[in-house]
User: What shape does this take?
Amino acid sequence: MQRNINDSATEMGHGDSILTSDGVRLHYIEAGQGPDLLLVPGWSQTAATWGHQIAEFSQTHHVIAVDHRGHGLSDKPDHGYRIARLTRDLCDLIIALNLDEITWVGHSMGCALAWSYWELFNGDGIERLVLADEPAAPVFHAHWPEGLAEHWGSTFAVPQITALVEGLHGPHGDDVIAELVNGMTTAGVCEADYNWLLEQARQMPREYASTLFLDHALKDWRDILPSIAVPTLVVGGSSSIFPSAAIEAIAEAMPRATARIISDRGSHFAFWENPLAFNREVREFLS
Assistant: This one.
């Protein structure tokens, strides 16, 4: 059972906040000393979900885990739920905390934010990247040639995305988020752990979650990948909703990237379900 481990790991650090350039209070967890390591969660998830990584990497690094606007303990304004705005929020955080030579560890949407950071800020201050389980183009299009969607792991059609957004925004939004979290974990996850992850996701109002989900899902970052020349580790899971081919395609498109696939409990949340394997891959990459 992992929930207690996550709780105690989070307590190793302390919480604080900064104000973004548009006046939103952004909460983060800070722990350890050493080179800067920034933990960027995915859509509707929180800084606390990085508890196992905070415990491990704060032994050797200055670790920052962030709650995006609308997520976790951060402010929940009625505006700004776009990838570009969340990217600017992270830039504000980096400047406010004087972070430099950063290892950026992103999960799911946290990878899209890294790609957006390269597009908007040319990767300023980032020395290494760890990208966990995010396709470069989640949605496929009818005009694509045969085999392209499979190559990039583009598993969603536009009607599927719009249906999910409508469901999230509707009266049964909590049920939709529960189904999504269930599909992103393995069958072996215990009920308490599943409920804990769901509790993190439900801290984000469904109206804001649906707006951000739509903006996130429709992005296509394939043209950005070749321009990212820092050492990069791309991690996937053999049981993830996103196929291993998507992970390998990203690594192949980036000049200095390596792909690793976690097999045991290798779900979309492999960093959380199998932290020993995930942390080992990251530790080897850092060394």
The first helix runs from residue 3 to 11. The two ends are 29 Å apart (CA to CA). Residues 1-9 have pLDDT under 50 and may be disordered. The chain has one domain: 3-286.
